[in-house]
Design a protein that fits this description.
about 110 residues, alpha+beta, 4-stranded antiparallel beta sheet, 1 helix, about 35% helix, about 45% strand, elongated
Length: about 110
Amino acid sequence: MNGFEVAALVLLAVGGWYWMDSLAALEAARRAAREACDRDGVQLLDDTVVIERTRPGRDDNGRASLARDCRFEFSVDGTDRQIGRLRLVGRELVWLEMARRPVFQVISGGG
């Protein structure tokens, strides 16, 4: 095996690890968002959480890990969309914020 093949295999392995780790982190974020919405009596819209940013970080034990900032949308009454954000370090929830301001609201009027 030459140097190019070794480098390609290493890149493939790192890419595979990152992909699998991101899927596990996304599921942890989805679970945290769902639990927060259930606790607050609001609806998690689309059952979707989006990873907006990934960067190096450290967990509570000081070990190097990936920190991921995520966004999700929820609704208080089914006619509005509001934004929630959370941060995971590894698969651990560090903070979660659910802003109570509408992103947009469906207005139905007579006319």
